Amino acid sequence: MPKDPTSTEGSLGSVPKKTNDDSFQLGFEKILEHAQKKKCSQDTEISEDGQILLLVGNCKEISISGTGNMIVADNARSVEISGAGNIVAVKSVRQVDVSGIGNVVAWRSSDTRSTDSGQSNSLGRHALDGVELAF
Prior knowledge:
The protein is mainly beta. Helices cover 9% and strands 43% of the residues. The strands form two sheets. Strands 3, 4, 5, 6, 7, 8, 9, 10 and 11 form a nine-stranded parallel sheet that branches. The chain has a two-stranded antiparallel ribbon with strand order 1-2. The longest helix has 12 residues. The relative contact order is 0.17.
C-alpha cells in the first residue's frame, strides 16, 4: 500500500509537512532557549562535542571542529566547519566554509559567500527549513 503523501511520519521519526515562513528565526530562538553564553574572541575555536552555545561579543572567525553542536551568534566575519552534524545560525556573516559532513549552516545576510567541500551539508538563508531541533 503506498504511503499517504500528507503523512508527517518518516522512517526516522516526524518530519515537518511544510516549512515555516521564518524557519531561521524560529530555529535561532529555539537554540537560544537552551544555549550557554560563550564570549567570542578574535578566533573562537569550538572543538568540543554536543555544545549548545550563544556566542556573544565581536566574533571575527569561528572555527568548529566538534560534532553535534548547536551554535547561534549575531554576527561573525567568517565561520569554518570541519566537524560533523553541527547546526549553526548566524544572523550576519561574510564567509562560510564547510568541509565536514552533515552540517547545517543558516544566515540572514544577503551578501554571504559560501563554499562546501564536504558531504551532505545544507548551507544558506533557508538551511533551517525542515530541520527539527531536539534537545
